[in-house]
What does this fold into?
Amino acid sequence: MSLDHPLASGAEQTFKRGFGAILRIAPDGLAAFDVDGRGATCVLRPASDENPQCVWRASPDTLNRIFEGGRALESAYLSGRLKIAGDMSVMARVILESAR
It folds into this structure.
């Protein structure tokens, strides 16, 4: 089942391999959604009552740039456009696929 969310297409292209945790994507002004990376492949779903291990907060534009690939993740985080909360070890396990 595909997630009905404006950022879902980019996220589906970006998060493919599991990373052993739940990552919540919380775009400014839009509903949050979860990337469940506990299996071999990731599953996107609406945010649930289950506590994520890590949360990303950013504008939809910033998140789209991250989903496109390149060095956008590092740049957004270092410039403060992307806020990351929770277990930072999750970040070491996340492998982002480039949509480019």
